[in-house]
Write a structure and sequence with these properties.
By secondary structure, the protein is low in regular secondary structure. The protein is built from two helices and two strands. It has a two-stranded parallel sheet with strand order 1-2.
């Protein structure tokens, strides 16, 4: 199993979701973020005590952006040929088998990944145990 190239500490500036204005006040307003556009909006005008608006300052560190806790970045694989791209980058990227790949192809992908020493994040997905008769 390969070890990640850079296992730096992943720092998230904010882990809570940005909530929509008045989502706590009205049930008809869902939580998903929408930018306030009203002329008198206290949130848009960034008054103290109002909900925070997302901005570029909350972005993650470029070196750890999109990094999983294991230290790898995710690369979606649909077939065995896609694994060849990760051959030289097996310490930076981990393969993740796409959701619409059949069990038979999954088995072939996992075997080839083991031969190429590539980490597969969901290797055990959709694998049925051998039935002993």
């Amino acid at each position: 199993m390969p070890t990640p190239l850079h296992k730096g500490k992943i720092v998230k500036k904010r882990t809570k979701k940005f909530l929509r204005q008045h989502t706590d006040r009205y049930l008809r307003v869902p939580e998903s973020w929408r930018r306030p556009k009203g002329i008198d909006s206290a949130v848009r005008r960034k008054f103290r005590g109002t909900v925070r608006m997302p901005n570029i300052g909350y972005g993650s560190d470029k070196r750890t952006r999109h990094m999983m806790p294991s230290g790898f970045r995710r690369f979606v694989v649909n077939n065995v040929a896609d694994l060849e791209m990760l051959m030289m980058h097996n310490r930076k990227y981990a393969a993740e088998i796409a959701h619409n790949v059949s069990g038979q192809k999954r088995k072939a992908i996992v075997e080839r990944a083991a031969a190429l020493d590539i980490k597969v994040t969901n290797a055990k997905a959709r694998v049925r145990a051998e039935e002993t008769a």
